[in-house]
Design a protein that fits this description.
142 residues; alpha/beta; two-stranded antiparallel sheet; 9 strands; 30% helix
């Protein structure tokens, strides 16, 4: 509590005002911390995607990404998964929901045959809804 001294110096009265300046300073510092930390919190698997001219579709709330990297290793979401355990890993993530769409990303260096092998593994696991992911790009010159 703060006290004010009156003109005569003997009478003390209470000051009922709250000093909010320290609170505002702390909030501004927290805001700056979150603005710097938020972009760093998004972790993604590095993959060089090819460009696509297809119309973008709305993205679901929690997409299920399967990534084929240039060395032909697979990542389900952010976790590496062996090719022979792909079906069980997909069932674990989707809780056996074979109707869930799987978004397939592949590096430019991955050959068409290797990509088809992954798509066949998805089909054999019972996941028939597969969406191919690419970067937005300009139409190719013919």
């Amino acid at each position: 509590m703060a006290a004010k001294l009156g003109p005569d110096g003997d009478d003390l009265s209470e000051n009922h005002e709250i000093n909010v300046t320290p609170f505002i300073d702390v909030m501004l510092v927290l805001l700056i911390i979150f603005m710097v930390a938020a972009p760093l919190a998004t972790v993604d698997v590095p993959v060089d995607l090819p460009a696509s001219t297809a119309q973008p579709q709305p993205r679901p709330d929690k997409p299920l990404f399967l990534t084929v990297k240039s060395d032909l290793t697979l990542d389900l979401g952010e976790q590496p998964v062996p090719r022979d355990a792909l079906a069980s890993a997909l069932d674990g993530v989707t809780n056996g929901d074979h109707e869930q769409r799987v978004f397939l990303r592949a590096d430019k260096a991955v050959s068409y045959g290797d990509l088809m092998d992954v798509m066949n593994a998805l089909r054999n696991a019972g996941y028939l809804k597969v969406a191919l992911v690419g970067l937005d790009g300009a139409p190719a010159a013919r």
